[in-house]
Design brief:
Elements lengths: L1 H12 L1 H16 L2 H12 L3 H27 L3 H8 L4 H37 L10 H8 L8 H28 L1 H4 L2
Helix pairs in contact: 1-2, 1-4, 2-4, 3-4, 4-6, 5-6, 6-7, 6-8, 7-8
C-alpha cells in the first residue's frame, strides 16, 4: 500500500514532489535489505507481527518505482486527457483512470516480492531471529543443522520446499507478466 501511494503520488504530480519521494525511495533501496531486517527485528523483538512490519517496510520501494514509471507513462495518454476534459477530478483520474491501468506490473512485482519475503523470513528464522512460537522453514533448517550428517532429509526437505515455493512464485510472476503485459502479447 505504501509503495502504491508513494509511486502513484510521485508519478502523477511529478516535479518537486516526485524528486522528494524518489530520493526517500532510493534511501530505502540502497540499504541492504537483510541487514536492516536483522536490525529491525533485533530492536523491536522477534514476533511475527514485527517480522511482517520489517518485511513491509523493506518491500515498498520496488513497488513505488514500478508504479511511478507506469504513472509517468499513462498520465499523458489520450484516455486520461479525455477524462480530464470531461471534468474528472484528480482523485478520479488517479483511482479510476490511471491506477487500474498501471496495476498489471504491480501485480507481477508482488509475486516476486512474496518470494523475496519468504526468503527473508526464512533467513531471519534460520539466524534465530524469527518468532519461536511459529513454525518456519528457516527454523526447521536451523534445528536440523545439528543432525545434518546423520539425517540429511531433516534439512533437505525444508530447503527444497523454500526453493520450490520461491521458484513457483517467480514462474507465476512470469506467467502473469505474459497475461497482463500488452507488449508481451504483440510478439
Amino acid at each position: 500500500v505504501l509503495g502504491i501511494v508513494v509511486g502513484g503520488t510521485a508519478g502523477f504530480f511529478g516535479g518537486r514532489i516526485d524528486d522528494l519521494l524518489m530520493r526517500v525511495t532510493e534511501v530505502f533501496q540502497v540499504v541492504p535489505r537483510f541487514f536492516l531486517a536483522i536490525l529491525l527485528v533485533a530492536f523491536f523483538g522477534a514476533s511475527i507481527f514485527n517480522i511482517l512490519i520489517a518485511i513491509a517496510v523493506l518491500s515498498w520501494p520496488e513497488v513505488a518505482r514500478v508504479l511511478r514509471a507506469d504513472f509517468l507513462s499513462l498520465r499523458n495518454r489520450q484516455f486520461v486527457d479525455a477524462a480530464r476534459l470531461a471534468g474528472a477530478s484528480r482523485s478520479e483520474l488517479i483511482f479510476l483512470e490511471i491506477l487500474p491501468n498501471a496495476m498489471g506490473p504491480v501485480v507481477v512485482n508482488a509475486t516476486l516480492q512474496v518470494g523475496q519475503a519468504m526468503l527473508l523470513e526464512a533467513g531471519l528464522s534460520y539466524l534465530g531471529l524469527g518468532d519461536p512460537s511459529q513454525v518456519s522453514l528457516g527454523l526447521m533448517l536451523q534445528q536440523g543443522q545439528q543432525i545434518m550428517r546423520s539425517a540429511w532429509w531433516v534439512m533437505a526437505f525444508p530447503g527444497l520446499l523454500v526453493f520450490l515455493a520461491v521458484l513457483c512464485l517467480n514462474i507465476t510472476g512470469d506467467g502473469l507478466n505474459d497475461v497482463l503485459n500488452p507488449r508481451a502479447r504483440e510478439r
